[in-house]
Amino acid sequence: MSNDCIFCKIIAGEIPSTQVYQDEQVTAFRDINPAAPTHILIVPNKHIASVNDLVPKDEILVGHLFTVARKIATQEGIATSGYRLIINHGPDGGQEVYHLHLHLLGGQKMRHKMG
Ligand code: AMP
User: Which residues sit with their C-beta closer than 6 Å to ligand 1?
Assistant: First the structure.
């Protein structure tokens, strides 16, 4: 846990969130400023600042983020209609919170392909 990380505090329950899933490896909660009807962040429970900080032993954890995303998409009823998964990295990628997170967006037709 990083003491000055907002997502670490959410995972620890020190800051409130609308949690939709948690297991030993990851936590998922609704984005506070949703960009789509369904907008959920899936985050590793251990503090990893960004994609640049991943190491080979994190590969199973990163795969787990995706299988949890698929599970939550089903729970949210958007698995068939479709959804978008996004990871932003660094200033040009638009990363605002430096705790790795996978955005799960759905419930509407996404307008932009990229950029
Ligand atoms: P990113 O730009 O990829 O770093 O995304 C960070 C996301 O975290 C944004 O979509 C924010 O709306 C979201 N966010 C920031 N603070 C909170 C919070 N306390 N609870 C839920 N989502 C948050």
Answer: 6, 15, 17, 29, 31-33, 41, 88, 94-97
